[in-house]
Every structure is written in C-alpha cells, then in structure tokens.
Specification:
The protein contains six helices and 16 strands. By secondary structure, it is of the alpha+beta class. β14 and β15 form a beta hairpin.
Length: 256
Amino acid sequence: MSSPIVTLTTDWGYSSFFAGMVKGRLYSAIPDVRVVDISHSLKPYDLVSAAFVIQNACMGFPAGTVHIIDILSEEQEGQGFLAVQYNSQFFLCTNNGLPYSLFGNAYQQVVELNAFWTSKFYNFAAYEIFCQAATSLLSGMSLSGLGREVALVERRLLRFIVSDGVIKTHVWHVDTYGNAYLDILYDELMEVLQNQSFDINIRGVHINSIKVAYAECTQSALTVSESGYMEVALYKNHAADMLGLKVGDIVDIRIK
C-alpha cells in the first residue's frame, strides 16, 4: 500500500515556522505520511492566486490525497472550516468562496468540520483543525464523521463572461517569467469564437492570433499555457510589466 499524501498550499512564506509545526504534527500522527509543499509563497490573503495554484497543481494527485489549504482561514459566521471531496481527493479549507471557485457544484460531498480547538487562542486553523481532519481521514474516517453537510458559499473569485461580442477575461496569475494567465481555457475560447477572428487591445498593443510556442511570441502574443489556460506572453521578456498587467485586471477579447 502506498504512503498517504498530504499537500500544503499556504501564504505562510518560507521564513516562518508554521510549515514546521504542521509537518511535525502530521508526521507524528500519521505513519508513513508524505507531506508535499505545493507553495508557501502565495501573496497573503490572495484567494485568486491560491485558486490558480490549486487548480493547476493539486488536481493530478492520486485518489485519497488530502490537501490542506491555509489562505484566509478565519472562521466567521457562514464561513466555517470545510472538508470537500472532489475527484476522490479531500480538500481542507475555509468556506470563503475559494472552494466554490474551484469546484462549483461538481464536488462529491462537503461537510463543515467539527472544530475542536486545543488552544484557547483561535489563530492557527491549519494546525488545530486541518491536521486533526487530515489525521481522521487518513485513518479511515468517513467525511460524514467529520461534520455536517453544508453548501458552499457561492462566490466566484474570477470567471470570464461573454457579452455583446466581447469575452471579458481576467488576469488570474502572473508567473516568474511575466506571462499573464487569463481565466479562460483554450477549449473554452475556441467554443466561444466558433472560428471567428478576435482582437485584444492592451494599452494600444493589439493581439489577434494564437502562437503555438513561446519562441514565436517575439511581440506580445496570446499562447496556451501548459495547463490549458490562455496567457499573454512575450518571449524572453516580462509581458505583464511591459503591458502593465496585474492579477485581477480585465482583458477584453473582442470577437470580429
């Protein structure tokens, strides 16, 4: 039997002790567990960037994997701590719009975790709540045994819309190379365009074709990322800086 896997996606940074605390608790509680760091360098409280990273990095893990997501994990009325089963994996997070953006209504089951704090200070949900839930799940407890079934807060962080011949997309992520990822997949774009041409105007720079490789993006161009999402790229240059793009910006794709 393969070792159980727990992943961590957080905004803790790499200079804090938080990851060490959580890993220590997991290694002590779960025999043979493998803890995988997805990222600890997300911008604090940035649910949009978190959604992008989780969507692209976590979905390919094997069935039974537990994903701990500690971004804006503050329990508030109507925003409790969740365990979501999706694609036979388990996602431990907060009901703050992030899980709905990731899963919509396609999840298998979702419960609000019974929160048993061992500290009188309620400041570290990943350590106090999510580690307990991960241990229980990997010990064979069913999702129903962790809490009561609830609905996800229906809030999409970013989602393209089509109106009056314009596909209104958003910058979802900017990577190390300055490529600006849009919140629309290549297949979705092709379905909307229906073989029609298009034009993007970003501060006077026009983009009207899709390149098949980064090396072809000698001028700012649209290409397809490794995850299938469209991205604005500029070969060996920082497209986001050159075009003044940042996460959350709107990029209009006009259908011609």
